Amino acid sequence: MAVDTEFHAERRHEPDLYLVQVHQAGEPTALIDPRALQDLAPLGQALSDCQVLVHGGERDLQLLVRHAGLDPRHVTDTQVLAGCTGLGFPRRLEDLRAELLDAPAPEHRTGLSDWRRRPLGPDQLAYAAADVRQLPELADRLLARAAPARLALAQGATRELVDRWLTPPVPSDLWRRLPAARVLDHRERQRLRHLTAWRHGQAQARNLSPWNVASDRVLVDVARRAPRTVASLGANRLMPKGLLKRSGEELVRLVHEAPDVPLRPLASTPPARAFQAALQAWAHGLEARSGVASGLVMPPWRLDLLVADWVQGQPCENVPAWLEEFSGEELRMWTAGQATLRVTRSAGLAPDY
Question: What is the pLDDT of residue 348?
């Protein structure tokens, strides 16, 4: 059952759901209005018994779990299938349809239109239906390209992604996503950790995007300067006046209450940054040789975990079962210094044992 959703996520912590599209091959496409039905539990129950087909389905599954109680036990993601069959990752749906189905791009791009309006316009309805109508055929084309081993690989990668999509973030780890954290010292990182966890809580409570609570730049500045008064907090001319008025005293308190806790290391030293770059190079070389996209093999969160293991002298443990079976031995040999990388014009980077 092909599934897609239309929603508004701008300035929101939790997106507002405005349309659900459902399609099964050979059947009419259903466009479901959550505002009219109000109770989507029957839809969630029905879909839980199906093989749910999505394309880049992170938001779709999150919204259907939240609003319809979906239990996504069986998920196929055409974006992941493309990434495991030599077509790259992530790929836009309309690009894959054009490449594999010879389907022209829609004349009217209405994905960012106002989905709150009722009635929806004909262009909006056509756009919404097109997103799911050709998904089954696209999936069939991708499955036809995939050997059984690659299909198993895609299934494992999809399960990993779905688990991540549906697991709430750990607030105390969110600081690691800020690129500027790498240049801070240990105490400044502890302050940043405390501030980003606070921002996450504020965003949840007020249903705002974290950026609309406080920007990354502001949090890094506060963590670095550790101002002791609201006046010194506002000394930076880029400090938003609304944030200063609403939360100035709280921010001053937070930076001085940040607990002194151990932090998993970042790639902040030249050797660690070199290892991080080499991991990325290895993943790109693997893609050149196998067709399995580096974005699936070495996404940012796995890169972060593997670099932290290496910095602490720990074995390469943060490897999921699907990747372990596919290339875990090669990765472990390389990170253990039992293999090197060499560059060839035909295959890019390849291991040398």
Answer: 65
Under 8 Å between Cβ of 54 and 60: yes
Residues of the chain with pLDDT under 50: none
Domains of the chain and CATH, by start: 2-166 (3.30.420.10), 171-257 (1.10.150.80), 270-352 (no CATH)
On the CB side of 292, CA atoms within 13 Å amount to 23
Q: Give the pLDDT confidence score for residue 60 in this predicted structure.
A: 97
**Three-point CA angle 80, 84, 89, nearest 5°:** 55
Task: Kindly report the number of other CB atoms within 10 A of residue 287's CB atom.
Answer: 22
Give pLDDT, residue 318.
83
CA distance 334 to 315: 12
β-bridge pairing 52-54 and 75-77: parallel
Q: How far apart are CA 203 and CA 199, in angstroms?
A: 6
266/183 Cα distance (integer angstroms):
10
Q: Residues with Cβ < 8 Å from 6, sequence gap 6 or more?
A: 17, 18, 19, 21, 111, 115, 128
Residue 172, C-beta contacts closer than 8 angstroms, at least 6 positions apart: 193, 197
Indicate the residue type of 132. V
Tell me how far apart the alpha carbons of residues 50 and 183 are, in angstroms, rounded to a whole number: 47
Which pLDDT belongs to residue 266? 94
Which structure tokens are listed for 77?
């993601």
